[in-house]
Specification:
The complex is a heterodimer of chains A (165) and B (147). Chain A has 165 residues and is α+β, with helices and mostly antiparallel strands. Chain A contains five helices and seven strands, in the order E-E-E-H-H-E-E-E-H-E-H-H. In chain A, helix 1 runs parallel beside helix 3 and helix 2 crosses helix 3. The two termini of chain A are 16 Å apart. With 147 residues, chain B is an alpha+beta fold. Chain B has a single domain, classed as Bifunctional nuclease domain, CATH 3.10.690.10. In chain B, strand 4 and strand 5 form a beta hairpin. In chain B, 37% of the residues are buried. The chains are: A alpha+beta (165), B alpha+beta (147).
Chain lengths: 165, 147
């Protein structure tokens, strides 16, 4: 899913949502992003259960009877003739990621700050690419991953994933 | 309608946003999920989170284009599910967008837009489950009303 007009910023790497993992007994989900051209290179982001579910609905293409929050944002964009161009995971501070959503209308580009979960949820619905800056890829937070890995027990290895795409 | 408060519904393990009209004669309870309740609660308390929550993002998105939320209307109640519409003003045109009441209310609070409910919704609701639900409430549940 590459754009016709490559992003103006340098150092962006395109990723896609590979799957959503459920963490047993917690209120969190792990969104596993995989590099667009190399599925073996992954990037996990921890999100809340509600945010994870919103992403999963979009990933599965589930049609809900009423519009979910990100469907509403997409609907606003359609009414305002705004195109959601791309989302970029642009910063990481104290293990928290920050994202930017790039939107255009009448040839003018604007950027809006978002949480990665909202940005990803919207990107899947708007079918726009997801990028991570090289800077973030270098400084990526391993705190969560290390903690999670250390809690894993041998029996957990090899258990089927919650959802495979 | 004004937002009277937000309370936890221990029977359905979910949250209820209670709306009331100006004269306090009609009440409209709307059941919402945990994250939606959290978002409404933050807006009611004027809490600014370190990162934008979904409805803060929604608000920023509309602000970026100078689109104004004129009002939100709870339009229908069907099989225990409420439906809402958001009325937007953008470049001198009015747009109506379908939404869940929780999103509509969370957004209205952030945009200082009025919340309305159709008469028919209030009438329908009165005949539905709320009275029964109120009867089941214990006195201690009322302490959880956050208004």
């Amino acid at each position: 899913m590459s754009t016709a007009n490559p992003p103006s910023e340098q150092g962006l790497v395109e990723y896609r949502v590979a799957r959503i993992l459920e963490e047993a007994n917690t209120d969190t989900r792990i969104v596993v992003l995989a590099k667009q051209d190399n599925a073996l290179v992954t990037f996990p982001i921890w999100v809340g259960a509600a945010e994870g579910n919103a992403i999963k609905l979009a990933l599965d293409g589930t049609i809900t009877p009423r519009p979910m929050s990100h469907d509403l944002i997409k609907s606003f964009a359609e009414h305002l003739s705004v195109t959601i161009q791309r989302v970029v995971i642009a910063d990481v501070k104290s293990s928290t990621y920050y994202a930017t959503v790039y939107v255009t209308n009448k040839g003018v580009e604007r950027k809006i700050d978002a949480r990665p979960s909202d940005a990803i949820s919207l990107a899947l619905r708007a079918q726009c690419p997801i990028y991570i800056t090289e800077d973030v890829l270098t400084r990526r937070s391993t705190t969560n991953l290390d903690a999670w890995l250390s809690k894993l027990e041998p029996k957990d290895i090899g258990t089927p994933e919650v959802q495979e795409t | 309608m004004h937002i009277k408060g937000l309370m936890f519904d221990p029977y359905n393990n979910t949250y209820v946003v209670v709306l009331h009209d100006e004269k306090h004669s009609d009440m409209l309870p709307i059941w919402v999920g945990k994250s939606e309740a959290g978002s409404i609660s933050m807006a009611m308390e004027n809490v600014t989170p370190p990162r934008p929550m979904t409805h803060d993002f929604m608000h920023s998105f509309l602000d970026a284009y100078n689109a104004k939320v004129i009002s939100v209307v709870i339009t229908d109640l069907s099989e225990h599910t409420y439906f809402a519409k958001i009325h937007l003003m953008y470049e001198d045109s009015e747009y109506t967008v379908d939404a869940r009441p929780s999103d509509a209310i969370a957004l209205a609070l952030r945009c200082n837009a009025p919340v309305f409910a159709r008469d028919t919704v209030i009438t329908k609701q009165n005949s539905e489950e709320f009275d029964q639900w109120l009867e089941n409430l214990k006195p201690e549940d009322f302490g959880k009303l956050d208004s």
